[in-house]
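Example record for the data management plan.
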Amino acid sequence: MRIDLHAHSTASDGTDTPAELVRNAAAAGLDVVALTDHDTVGGYAEAIAAVPAGLTLVTGAELSCRLDGVGMHMLAYLFDPEEPELSRERELVRDDRTPRAQTMVGKLQDLGVDVTWEQVARIAGEGSVGRPHIATALVELGVVPTVSDAFTPDWLADGGRAYAQKHELDPFDAIRLVKAAGGVTVFAHPLAVKRGECVPEAAIAELAAAGLDGIEVDHMDHDADTRARLRALAADLGLLTTGSSDYHGSRKTCRLGEYTTDPEIYGEITRRATGAFPVPGAGGRER
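Corresponding structural encoding:
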């Protein structure tokens, strides 16, 4: 089985619609793909309706969190999307995305960049606006060559010249809320140092003690030494280890299935989840 547990659609900052995402996942030879848009479940209905035969969809989200001033992302899988407390927190984060993005556009303008809110809004479309949309605007303007090059201290990285904070969850609260909604939590790209400051390993141990299920190990932003270090840490802490593409369509260079999750790990994730079930392409439910 080929299993990719981290992909984005136009419901947040990907370039594939949810329907295109599942079709492209099947075309890429995947058996399982997770839809993990930022702080939203808005792509679920379209993706579920379009899952082709031979592919299983895992519903999820990538939750924006912050611990001691350091930004981090929490992947949440197979939670009940209607659970009210988690829904309320996701809404708070989403509501803060637009004013935050507008603030960042203003900061870029102060730095002499000829970017406009109208340009960013056009790029975001119906999606939940975020930094990748602003980064795409910088690419369009020729300020940086790629979206990844915009995530530096000069521009949009945490603490960068044009960075602005938004409402984010405490990760311990995120674990509690996802668990209460029947879901499973995995710390996304925990040592992606190229993105900025990372939470220390001691904090990962505290999150594990609080109920964190796993860490994303095999990811394009982790080199071989980092992956080995994380795998050893996960073994010490009793955490699951996942692999994923973090696919964003044409917005980033990663390909669907570039990194994958072991089928036994996937099986354990589905066993732990009680809020929702994977959706096979025939339209039924699998346990």
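Summary line stored alongside the record: Strands lie at 3-7, 32-35, 56-67, 70-77, 184-187, 214-218, 240-243, 279-280.
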